[in-house]
Amino acid sequence: xxxxxxxxxxxxxxxxxxxxxxxxxxxxxxxxxxxxxxxxxxxxxxxxxxxxxxxxxxxxxxxxxxxxxxxxxxxxxxxxxxxxxxxxxxxxxxxxxxxxxxxxxxxxxxxxxxxxxxxxxxxxxxxxxxxxxxxxxxxxxxxxxxxxxxxxxxxxxxxxxxxxxxxxxxxxxxxxxxxxxxxxxxxxxxxxxxxxxxxxxxxxxxxxxxxxxxxxxxxxxxxxxxxxxxxxxxxxxxxxxxxxxxxxxxxxxxxxxxxxxxxxxxxxxxxxxxxxxxxxxxxxxxxxxxxxxxxxxxxxxxxxxxxxxxxxxxxxxxxxxxxxxxxxxxxxxxxxxxxxxxxxxxxxxxxxxxxxxxxxxxxxxxxxxxxxxxxxxxxxxxxxxxxxxxxxxxxxxxxx
Length: 400
What we know:
The protein is built from 2 helices and 20 strands. By secondary structure, the protein is mostly beta strands. The strands form 2 sheets. Strands 1-2-3-4-5-7-8-9-10-13-14-16-17-18-19-20 form a 16-stranded antiparallel β-barrel. The protein has a two-stranded antiparallel sheet with strand order 11-12. The radius of gyration is 21 Å and the shape is globular. It starts with a helix and ends in a 6-residue tail after the last helix.
């Protein structure tokens, strides 16, 4: 039953959770994204996503843009109004909600705990303001201010321990402020991207308090998060060899299980700021603070540049969330990705393998995982426009 719920989460959690835009995206996009990863040893929920993504500028008006991410039982949407608050300031209104979006899975020393894991459903509304500070520059600098109200409703499963008390259903008011220089396209493997960003988020919950076994854990009334990311992706125009570097770090005040930084797995579009470590369970590690570095190096295998091989490496130093620690503050993993991309750019499929060096398992240290990633770029069916590389060189989108 729990594995079935895990699969539903995978398909429902559309997985661009809390997608944050650095602007109202001016590019027309139509994508299907699918991702799946599974550990080769040890029981765990399925880590996966499947969603249809559309960004439609000029939607019922020249200054209106519709962004929509649709999964089987989850919907995330935002309507953006460009220049509504000034020549360089956009406003957007978002609505999202559906089943299994707030599921929580507990891990202790690399072992999944179904008796302490539970199902969560959610709904939210948001208002965002995006301001361009440097109009006319090649790499845009955007300021982002967002307020959001989120409802979380929890229920247990057949595997929930009878003595475990669920957290109370509650509302969370969140406000986020950030600066983002550059950005990254919402693609599986963009040819070019650059980002330097810094963020603050405050979370304030109703119905906070203790839950679990005799109140051994807490839903915090207030949490503060501080994080940043530096990202660089570059593809050589002729050889199509590509380097992808991402350095992220974060800290927190009064973090709990619902606001902690979750690291592990290798799903690139599984969250707004993915914290991947190959070979680990998806979101296996919970941290109150961290520093993480991930690198990819992609090499074409044939003259047509359709088949590729990509070594991957990740390393993270973290302070574990209280009650979820394990020996050692360093976690690292390495992997290999074999990919195929069609000549017209519509289809892309990547098979992944990862090994987590410090992952705690029943036979000691070392975890393995396999996965599959697929992208269908329906917008690429229409020839005649600029290539992705040409377009991105002229415009760095500020949207994840």
